[in-house]
Each structure stands twice: as structure tokens, then as C-alpha cells.
Amino acid sequence: MFRKSVWVWLFFLIFTAVNQGCSGGSSTSDPTGSGDGDDDGWSTQLVKSGNFANGEINLSVDADCNLYVSAYELNTGLYCVTNKSGSWVSTLIIDDEDNSAGFQNDITVDPDGKVHIVYSSLDGQAYATDEAGNWSSQEIWVGGTGSCSIVSDSGGNLHSVFDESDNWDIRYSYKPAGETWGTKVTIADEWVNSDCDIDIDSSDNPHVAFNFAGHYNLRYACLSGSWNVSTIEGVDDYPYVPDTGWTPAIAVNKTTDAVNIVFWNSTANSVQFSNGAVNSAVTLKEVAGWARPCIALDSEGYAHVFFGESGTNIINYSTNKTGSWVNTVLPINIHGNELAVKIDSADKIHLIYSKYSDPNLYHASLQL
């Protein structure tokens, strides 16, 4: 999830250059269409043609291993793309309308297979769903917003976190299944331009990772009766160095409740992993420039981390499945740093990305 206010869009441009409920105004693309070729066990395919290099790409998977993608197309808007029907089907959910609607977004699928998307625009935070059979949207928060994230729990209740830029807060909102969004709770009074991500544990408690941008550190929050917030990397006091906790992503083991956080450490020029404990981070790889890692857990709880590198246009794949961290470079080029990963119930990795050679959406998969 990403930055806030107008300079956010400029920042991103500088650094970068499935349910049939996705209904109405749809188009399809061949799931066997051209990709990067199959290599090292990875199978790739075209998802959707378009200009997807300058906005967020996110991914969810349902109980039947169908994929659902939320992706922003430059000057067009926010799409939901799914392969539930057997072919990739896309629906334009929100028009851009010159307010960058959907530039920052996230997607989740509830236990009933209904799709839920949160997204930001220059006008605030909003929510879209196909829960009633057709797509509808509503405002969650009016005012400046940036990074946003959403997850469904085992009961179909929705948990969302977002960067509320007008008051410089990280806020959490909860939507019981079939009801409306509730009070927006301030998790932390941060500063500016924070990234945030959310997941749930085995008891459906939310866990949030975010960077406290004004202090350049990484923070972790969990809700168990009340919110507990801690700085896990970096410092809280001036001069606020090192610059550690950018672009975090979080995944919580639904069996053991083990916390897995990946992030970019700017000072160390590296992508790092934390288990949520203070100063627990280990380096996965030193990188050539800014990175936005994503993470998913397999059925055994091992972590699978993917990230691009500015300036090299490669996808790194780090995993601790062998008992220690191993990093490899995939035979796939990427445009910028936007990619998303999920692992389905059959332990198949799914990666959505935009290629370096063109800004279309692509899917790569690997059976573990």
C-alpha cells in the first residue's frame, strides 16, 4: 500500500518510469496467451493488456483456488480481474475521473466467494463489492488518504487499515458481515506518507504492519481487546535514523499465529524479514534501489517473499522453506516494483506482475 497526497503520484511515476461476480462491462483474455515462457518450473500467461505499470497490483484467492486481481490502469481506473470462469475476465470497477481513484488499492475474497476492494483517491477512502450480485461502491472516509489494505476473516467480517493523510493517522475500520463500516479507530498518530498492510490470526484478530514515516521506522500493531503498538525496527527519538521500515507486508500463520513481516530498509539498501519482535530483522538481500516486497505462507507455514529491484528490473524470490533463507532470481523481467503474491490451498504460488518490456498484467505460477 503506498504514499499520500499529490506528491505521492509523482514519486511513484519517478520510481516506476476469481468470481464471475466481476460482472458487467467485462472483457476476456486468453489464459494461455503469451507470457515470458516457462522456465525453472514457472508457468506464465497474459492476464490483461493495458498500462498497469504505474499503480498498485493486488491479489486474492478463494477456497476453490480461483484468483482475483485488483489493478489500477493509468488514466483509466481500477479493475477487478478473475479467472473463475476458466478465462481471465476483467471489469472496470471505478473510473479514474482525474482523481487517481484506485491508484492505491487492495482486494480480499470472503468465505462465500464475494469480492471486497478498498481503494484510495484524492477524495478519500472508498470500498467496492459484488456482494449483492452487481458491483457497488461507497465512501469509507472523506478526505486525504493513501495506503490501504483489507482482509476478510473466517466469518466474512472485513478488517481494513488505511493511512489518513489529513490528520496524519493510521486508522482501522471494521465491517461485520452484511452490515456497514463502523468507527474508524486511530491505531497510531504517525506523520506523513506511511505504508500499511493487514492480516488476521487464527482467532480473527487483526495484525498491522506500517512504517512510521516521520521517524523512518517500522511498527507493528495487533488487536487483542485493545490495540498494542510497538516499534520493531528503528528508533523513536530524533534524529530518527536508521531509515528502516518502508513498504511493509505482513502474513500471519493461521495455525501458529506466527507473524511474518517483510519490508525495505533504505539505510541498509536491503529487503528484510521480521517475526514481529523488536530488532528481529534479518536481511534477505541487498538491493540496487527501492523495493516493495510481498509475502505469502504455504501450508507448512514457510514464507515466500517476492520483490523487484529498481534499476535491475528483476524479480527476486526469497524463501525459508529449506530451514534458512535462500534467494534466487526468477527468469522474469518486471516493470517497476509492483507485484502481488498468494499461495492457494493446493500449495501453488501465484504471482501477478507487470513486465518490463510492456505494461500488461501477467500471471506466473509454481507448484510447490
The shape is globular
The beta-strand count equals 29
Low-pLDDT stretches: 1-39
Helix proportion? under 10%
CATH T-level topology: Neuraminidase
Instruction: Please compute the radius of gyration using only Cα atoms.
Output: 18 Å
Keywords:
single chain, mainly beta, Neuraminidase, five-stranded antiparallel sheet, four-stranded antiparallel sheet, disordered N terminus
What does this entry look like structurally?
The protein is mainly beta and 368 residues long. The chain has a single domain, classed as Neuraminidase (6 Propeller), CATH 2.120.10.10. It has one helix and 29 strands. A five-stranded antiparallel β-sheet has the order 1-6-5-4-3, with no helix packed on it. The longest helix is centred in the N-terminal third of the chain and has 12 residues. The radius of gyration is 18 Å and the shape is globular. The N terminus is likely disordered.
What is this structure, in a nutshell?
The chain has 368 residues and is mostly beta strands.
Furnish the topology, listing elements before pairings:
Elements: H1 5-16, E1 26-29, E2 43-48, E3 57-61, E4 67-73, E5 77-82, E6 88-95, E7 104-109, E8 115-121, E9 124-129, E10 136-142, E11 145-152, E12 158-164, E13 169-175, E14 185-189, E15 196-200, E16 206-212, E17 217-224, E18 226-233, E19 246-252, E20 259-265, E21 270-274, E22 282-286, E23 294-297, E24 303-308, E25 314-319, E26 326-333, E27 339-343, E28 348-354, E29 361-367
Antiparallel strand pairs: 1-6, 2-29, 3-4, 4-5, 5-6, 7-8, 8-9, 9-10, 11-12, 12-13, 13-14, 15-16, 16-17, 17-18, 19-20, 20-21, 21-22, 23-24, 24-25, 25-26, 27-28, 28-29
